[in-house]
Amino acid sequence: MRVLNVRLKLNQIRRVDEGNGIGSAEPCLWTVFFKIDGDTARVSPALALTGTATVRGTPGSHVNLSGHDAEPGEAIAIPSAVGEFNTVLRPIPLEQPLGVGDVGGVVGCVAVLTEEGGAVGPALARGHAALDKAVRESLDALVPTLNFAHQEPTGAGIEQMKAKVGAAVTRAVENSVSAREWLKGFGNVDDRAGGGVFFYDHEELERAAGTSGLEICQRWRGEGGWELRGRVTATLA
What's the pTM? Predict the structure, then answer.
């Protein structure tokens, strides 16, 4: 495994259609970037990973995209502060020589798309903070489960993390506003939010190093249709 410079960039959100409603919508995007690599993790003599994940939250809990309502078909550029993660991905070293090479790391992003609706700013801020905390706790709990036969998160592990993150965000927003505000704003959070976890392992990023990279494309069906686009690229450090 080689040391890589990695850039994960979410470029734009596009409103595909109106869904059940009519008219415009004001989206905001919560993002949390993460990596598990040699900066904070090691392989123990028992062949299990030890250490923690690196997690980076982003600013803004509401109105952090265009600042205006999005019409159907409109594409909104995602600011770099919200959608870009530049990092160095380092192989995970072995605490004791085992006759094999270093273990590859992973890098990724959790993205949650919401519409502001009737929820108030402080409530959304608590939800965003809950997202950051839930991602960090989920990844730190995931690290000790990884070993040579299971070097990156499986689909089942990612689904469990997504469920925990979604529940934490829902609880944080629900508990911080009145019942009336909740029903008006985020009462049906699953209808108002799309979400995805994107992650890339060391090997596939190394294979793509020096190329145009790997495309990110995710469509969500919530309160209308939305499409997220971006790209992850890598170069040899």
Answer: 0.81
How many folded domains does the chain comprise? 1
Containing 122, the helix (H) or strand (E) segment is helix 121-142
In order, the DSSP letters of 204-224 are: HHHHTTTSS-EEEEEEEEESE
Q: What does the alpha-carbon distance between residue 219 and residue 14 come to, in Å, rounded to a whole number? A: 9
Q: How many residues does the chain have?
A: 237
Tokens, residue 158? 């990612």
Phi/psi zone of residue 52: left (φ > 0), alpha (ψ -120 to 50 degrees), beta? beta
Which residues have a Cβ under 8 Å from the Cβ of 237 and sit 6 or more positions away? 2, 3, 4, 5, 88
Q: Where are the beta strands (DSSP E) in the chain?
A: 4-17, 27-36, 41-43, 49-51, 54-57, 75-77, 84-89, 106-115, 193-201, 214-222, 224-236
Residue 156, pLDDT score: 72
Cα 33 from Cα 152, distance rounded (Å):
16
CA distance 116 to 113: 10
Residues of the domain holding 52: 4-236
Summarize pLDDT for 85-135 with one digit per residue, the tens: 999 999 988 887 766 667 888 898 888 887 655 555 677 777 778 888 888
Q: How far apart are CA 225 and CA 73, in angstroms?
A: 10
Read off the tokens for 212: 């145009």
